[in-house]
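FORM 12-B: Structure-to-Sequence Request
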């Protein structure tokens, strides 16, 4: 028997979260190639030079000062997740909902926690708190140290889109388990990796994913990386959640 509301749909991923944690900050895939794999997604750039968000087929680079610019199609990415977003599940969000409450609301929207979901939240936010990685210099430090330099930004009364993925716990290490989302405003001028937000009003759209296309880098650094750290929970918490 097939599951309601779930249709076969591929999510593409370049490299592994544990490779980033291990300090593999240079990739071998360009933004141009990545856009060939989907019109929606997130990730980071070579040397951790900012957060990436892809919305409506356009890739933006979100730097540590909170500014957003169009990404160069030739720019390299050491880690990214993207898909062609099909909004199969949609709901109006309850007014003035916080990130913590919205997480539970999204849980109720999903037919099963065992699939992947691309998540798009569009609307007016009374507040969005983001942080963004700072460009690193070689020799690269592990990500738990690199993110010590992160700058937090707060955006008040802003319209925009939060884009990302809700990933099953069993993908821990491959990806970031749970919700990993990036923000960009409607004017496409500011954004970052989302730590917290309050959504005044807006809509939530989900695109369920059933297939994962994983591309592993052919670089020497990736070949030699430690991709199964014993303290992965602590590392993910420090680098992605931060509070
Ligand atoms: Zn992020």
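FORM 12-B RESPONSE
SEQUENCE OUT:
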């Amino acid at each position: 028997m097939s599951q309601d509301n779930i249709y076969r749909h591929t999510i593409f991923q370049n490299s592994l979260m544990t490779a980033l944690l291990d300090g593999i900050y240079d990739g071998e895939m360009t933004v141009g190639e990545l856009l060939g794999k989907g019109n929606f997604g997130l990730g980071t750039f070579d040397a951790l030079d900012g957060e990436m968000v892809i919305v409506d087929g356009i890739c933006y680079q979100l730097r540590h000062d909170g500014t957003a610019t169009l990404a160069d199609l030739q720019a390299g990415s050491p880690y990214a997740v993207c898909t062609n977003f099909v909004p199969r599940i949609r709901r109006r969000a309850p007014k003035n909902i916080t990130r913590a409450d919205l997480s539970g609301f999204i849980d109720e929207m999903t037919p099963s926690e065992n699939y992947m979901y691309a998540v798009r939240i569009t609307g007016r936010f009374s507040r969005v708190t983001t942080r963004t990685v700072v460009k690193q210099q070689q020799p690269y430090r592990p990500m738990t140290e690199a993110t010590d330099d992160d700058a937090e930004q707060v955006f008040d009364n802003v319209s925009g889109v939060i884009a990302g993925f809700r990933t099953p716990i069993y993908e821990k290490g491959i990806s970031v388990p749970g919700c990993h989302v990036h923000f960009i405003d409607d004017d496409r001028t500011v954004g970052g990796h989302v730590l917290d937000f309050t959504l005044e009003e807006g809509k939530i759209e989900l695109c369920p994913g059933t297939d994962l296309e994983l591309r592993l880098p052919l670089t020497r650094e990736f070949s030699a990386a430690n991709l199964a750290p014993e303290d992965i929970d602590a590392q993910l918490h420090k680098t992605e959640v931060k509070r």
